[in-house]
Model the fold of this input.
Amino acid sequence: MTSKKLIVLFFTIIVGLIYSLENILPYFWTKNTPGQVFTVFNGGDENLYAAQAREVYEGKLSGNAFIWETKNQPIFSNIFLPWLGTLFAGFLVRVFHSLDWTFVLGDFVFPGLIFILLVNLAYKLTNNFYGSITVGLATLFLSPVTTKLPPINMDMWQGLVNILTFHQSYQLIFSTLITRQLSFLIFVLFLFSLYFLFQKSLIWTIAAGMTAGILAYFYGYYWTTALVILGAGMILAFLNRDYLLGRNLLIALLIALGVSSLFLINFYNNLLSDNHFLSGKIHGRFIEPLTTIRYGFFCLISWYLLPKNKLRFLSMVTFLAAVILMNLQLLLGFSIDPGHWPNSVFEPLLVFFIGAIFFFLVKSRGFVKVLPLLIILFIGVNQFASAKEWLSFHQLSTTENNLFNWLNKYAEPESVVLTLDKRISRYLPVATAVNLYLPYGPFSQLSLDNIWLRIDLAFSILGFQEEQINQKLLDTQFVGQMFEQAYNYEQTDNLNNLDFPDSVKEEIKTKKPIFSLGLRYIPDNIKNEHNQVVKLLNKTALKDRLCRYRLDYVLFTPKDKINMHKLDTNYFLPVFSEDSYSLYKLINGICL
Done:
């Protein structure tokens, strides 16, 4: 093995270890802490993907791991939990026979594989070995820092200073998300295919189209990026009168559209039904200024500083794709969660291409050898602090573990549990085979009306009064991810006839789409409307409310233990109780 390969192998192992820190520290900490059980899942998006992977592991190829009523839908019908990534994760769980340890190994292996591909691509573009090492490390570790730089963010200078002075840590972009790790891996393979496509080879044309199309079934934001890169590249090639390159890019684009046609059909059907999209759907035709300036500037940098070569072409079409996608609403009249494009796709690519441009232009090798070590030192300290900060998120209490074990042992397959505790609802489909009464909104494949009715029925079954409903709707522990579909926010002057307090309305208007994911307000008229719905429901027979949708258990946790006394014990029996966790079962035969 050559010295260069040994160096790459060394840094690959370091990358895997750094990405594994947030698993290693909590594992040993919980092992030595009485009453705590380690879990790799911290209650974030990884829980959603892990629940789907569990379904695959158990041989259930349904499109939904959370809602009993939609279990008969095929796995490819869920456009928000891409099914190829889910299938692959489920296959790995079958190999290793452990959901937790599959994701632990994923954190060690997949970032390392991404690093190897990034280094090889950067080396082909720059012919600078240590520069390529630096670019690979920076792409994997530093993109959360660049999002704090203007013009993408005008309010986070203090956050940047805190990070650089080790007073604030951050989570890595590909941490504990096998599907996103696989998505970026395939996207880098797509960039490799584009690199070799310059040889005018039909094989690489097909490879570029296939990898771009397959991305639709892994992560839609990488897929749209790949499509726009192919389209923008085709137009640039024809403008430069490179008709053979333009033709090959057109062929690749058509192949990509053909491969992703099933996803396109499902997406179109969901768009027509308006399911899923109310939370992150931004209406209006307007230019998104911050990201347009940012990526447009770097596109000009690529065009001005670089000679006509592959690096110039790839960086320009990537930055053009960013400008186009962040202003997609100009063409369509709407966009869907546009913040995902810069945060998940373009900021890592920005770091990669700006780094590649720098090391292509700077031929000196001396100081470059030190940069990888400086990055490793910086990110090592940062991630050690981050792992300590997130320790409590990687633990379950022994009571929670006992509850999950009870459900796995005694609950009927596919039982449905109602709980108002957001955190526990995140773990139930991962640690057990039960379903949720109140769904993860965007991933539920349910209509907005259905989700709202479930929320109203839950309030009614649990005996909530008007002031309690208002409070619960404001409680982020209750609303959170589960109910993102249950309310709406707009980014333009048209607030869709929703009544917000004036201060909230002003904040909504002044926020930019890239930051829209952080806005979580429930309009006053929505709250009042559903208070009235619950009042009407409370006048109907409880049996009718209980049997509207399948319901088997009601779970109370320390967060909502105060509501337990309102449950009608004529219909429910206690079956599990331990340390402020109480589980009630609907009496058999009630809903016959």
Remarks:
- The chain has two domains: 3-30+37-388, 397-487+522-586.
- Residues 406 and 427 are 14 Å apart (CA to CA).
- The two ends are 70 Å apart (CA to CA).
- Confidence is low (pLDDT under 50) at residues 476-495, 512-519.
